[in-house]
Design a protein that fits this description.
- By secondary structure, this protein is of the alpha+beta class.
- 50% of the residues lie in helices and 18% in strands.
- It has a six-stranded mixed barrel.
- The radius of gyration is 34 Å and the shape is elongated.
- The relative contact order is 0.11.
Length: 827
Amino acid sequence: MKNLWQDVRYGARVLWKRPGFTAVAVLALALGIGANTAIFSVVNSVLLRPLPYPQPERLVRVTVANVQRGTRDNPAAYLDFADWQQQTNSFEALAAYSSGSASLTGDGSAPEQLNGVVTTPDMFKVMGVSPALGRTFTAEEAARIAARGEKKEGAEGQGSGAAAAPQVVVIGHGLWQRRFGGDPSIVGRDVMLDNAPSTVVGVMPEGFRYPLDYDEVEFWAPLDTSNEFMRHRGASFLDVVARLKSGVSQEQASAELAAVSERLAADYPNTNRTRRAETQSLHERLVGDIRPALLVLLGAVGCVLLIACANVANLLLVRAASRQKEFAVRTALGASRWRIMRQLLTESFLLSLAGGVAGLLFALWGVDLLLAVVPADIPRMGGISTDARVLVFTLGATLATGLVFGLAPALQASKTSLNESLKEGERGSTASRNRLRGGLIVAEVALSLVLLAGAGLLVKSFWKLTAVNPGFNPEGVLTATMTLSDNKYEEDDQQREAYRRALERVAAMPGIDSAGLISPLPMSGNSIGTNFTVNNNTFDAPENVYRGERKAVSADALRTLGIPVVRGRAFTERDGEGAPRVFLVSEELARKCFPDGDALGRQMSMRDLGGISTGEIVGIVTDVKYEGLDAETPPAYYVSYLQTPSNGLSVVVRARAGTDAAALAPTLRAAVLEADKDQPLAEVRTMSAMLANSLARERFQMLLLSIFAGTALLLAAVGLFGVMSYTVAQRTHEIGIRMALGAQTRDVMRLIIGRGMALTLAGVGVGLVGAFALTRLMSGLLYGVSAHDPATFALVTALLVIVAFLSCYLPARRATKVDPMVALRYE
């Protein structure tokens, strides 16, 4: 221990006497360790940290696979969920839920649209979370709501088609603090949700936001099981979460669900013949989509750290070469080879510890930067922190780094030849050290090429994605979601009139060209899938039934959004509730359903919960990207919102040229409130912002990997420059002799540059092999680009070679300025 302490003190003095060398080494290591710690903090928070619920490994989602269409992770019908509850024994509890919204009014403040969840009572039991205040709602309360809905439907002869307003509600901690000032007496108080009184029975603890991981959940209300959506097995719109019983595996639960699915398929062949229920880990559900991207980024920063280690190792090799006489003297005085190695490794670990401390500080800043630019749809990012696992990772990376870059120089220096090192004028360099330095440069170039190839593929993929035609013109369009209260607008005619009134006020706004209503919005990620037939075919024959997405629009919605009608006509105000049913279809639907002729004038029938509706196709519109630029474009058809009423539509307005669409938001809110003083708007944003947000994850991945690749390229260039500069200094005597014997400038340039480019090309060869192997892991992150795209590989290779040439050129130019007379006297 005494000897170790002596090594530490001596190593610290040595490093302190070389502040320039120490600063460069610590900076390089801090950059590598800090970047790794920052990305690992994200990986730890998103992928490694367990879900914040009791025994999270027992939490699963129950989803539906469609064996006919080959799709998985589909939502469930309520009647199927009820059968799972009754016919399975693998689960401690199951809960079905759906996201929703409600308007909060009546407390003197401006009306506000709340994000919420309607759920069966067992949701909180499944998650194992108790309220911070009060209680959750009970099964009896949920049953009373269902009974009230059934009584209402029996009296009116028809349902409203949506969940009735809750009589009890549990609110989120954020809403409690923001709207009610954290008043503990809120429990038991009535609030107006969707124009009906609802009693607050509980407040959930801070941080609980399941199931909306990206948006704050502001209320939980009982799911009304009385309406027509719940009584139809064809209506699949519910998500299901469950807690496995202790000792029951996910595989056992899936096997039991498969058996239940077979029974349901036999009992209800029209709806369940193609359905198969299965389980999925809740953690996997939340993070599965982002895992490949995060692991690629973690691998990228690992490469940056290795390149930094190679650079520092080269610095230590150069420094060790200048200390050969020191080591020789210590050896002559009795120091063993192990003692020399231990001294050098101690210095390496001191450097790595300094780099680790600086890197941790850098990581704390880096995490804040990541949180500022990270897309909103990456789950669990709000919980990033420097916990024990991150600190252990940083310590491990620091110690491993010290060993990686310190071992090779220590081994080389410990092989000191006593006689040769003590000779006067001996430069202390050996061929083996030159080979080792060259090998490190080859490794740096290879790793840099791998990162450049990955970054190049992501850049090209992003460029191709932005070049995709979304099918509409987002410039100058402002949007907002408008959801009508079923309690205030119970009848279809009331909903039509409410939207007409709001649209009239909006269309009269100053500074706009047009206004319309649409559901769902392009790029919203939402869809309404229905079955349809064409040419008067019936729904009885499966081969005649197609699946498409239904869009409800007003007369001017397509013109407002810049969605062209390529043939036929658009809707008009005459296409109302009393007029013959008409449809617009997308080009994809026309190609798929009418390959041998024109779709215009043909008959089309759609089937939804309201029954079968048949009408004429009067127009064909361009294909529109509704679920993302990289998503496939399924067949779509459009209906007039007057002929197919809905309680949830989005308002779209196109600003006049020279008018900022975003600046119209207050005027838009005021216009809607003028039509209905209790009607809030939600998600007020421009279509340009929505389009940009749809690319946020791809932009984030591309930006980070490009930064890491650029850093790697810079470090590799610096490393090559350093090695070539040292080579020039080492061979000054030789260069002087060559020039004295008649060597020209180009000969010296060729000598130095040739050596550097030979190392570069060797690294390029190794790097291409590695890039071809590793970029295959990125195939799921790419759009329209092969993981082995030749153009990208050629471009990044050329860039690397050019940078390497410049790194060699500068030392070579300095070599040509050597004075032969001075060089001949050079030791």
